């Protein structure tokens, strides 16, 4: 059942993004930023945690999950370090994901030899 919930949650988030791309004049970059901000806001007001508990990776892997992770990290760091935690908590919480993205992006670049499309 966990796999089905993750599939449904992640699929719904992706479907909403695709509908926004198809039916609005919003650029993909604005939609992506909106997803991150939505994750931060929903995490800050406590609405994203129940979605994470139900959807698992379907809620934590998309960009809304990244925003939620940032907000959660900032909240924990502020409770621990005060104001300085607001500046460092989000990056610390998301460091593993950011590092993995950079590392695997580099590996893929080595294997496929990217170049200019011209």
From TrEMBL:
- Keywords for this entry? Membrane, Transmembrane, Transmembrane helix
In the UniProt record, the signal sequence range is none
Q: What start-end ranges are recorded for coiled-coil regions in this protein?
A: none
| Record InterPro entries | Spore_V_AE, SpoVA
Against Pfam families, the record matches this protein to: SpoVAC_SpoVAEB
What residues form the membrane-spanning segments? 32-51, 93-112
The domain of life for this entry's organism is: Bacteria
What PANTHER family would the database entry show?
STAGE V SPORULATION PROTEIN AC-RELATED, STAGE V SPORULATION PROTEIN AEB
Protein name, per record: Stage V sporulation protein AE
Please report the organism this UniProt entry assigns to the protein. Papillibacter cinnamivorans DSM 12816
């Amino acid at each position: 059942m966990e796999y089905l919930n993750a599939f449904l949650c992640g699929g719904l988030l992706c479907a909403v993004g695709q509908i926004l791309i198809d039916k609005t004049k919003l650029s993909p970059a604005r939609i992506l930023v909106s997803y991150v901000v939505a994750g931060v806001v929903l995490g800050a007001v406590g609405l994203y945690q129940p979605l994470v508990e139900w959807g698992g990776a379907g809620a934590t892997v998309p960009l809304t999950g990244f925003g939620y992770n940032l907000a959660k990290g900032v909240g924990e760091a502020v409770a621990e370090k005060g104001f300085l935690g607001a500046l460092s908590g989000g990056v610390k919480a998301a460091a593993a994901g950011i590092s993995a993205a950079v590392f695997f992006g580099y590996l893929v670049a080595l294997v496929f030899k990217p170049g200019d499309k011209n």
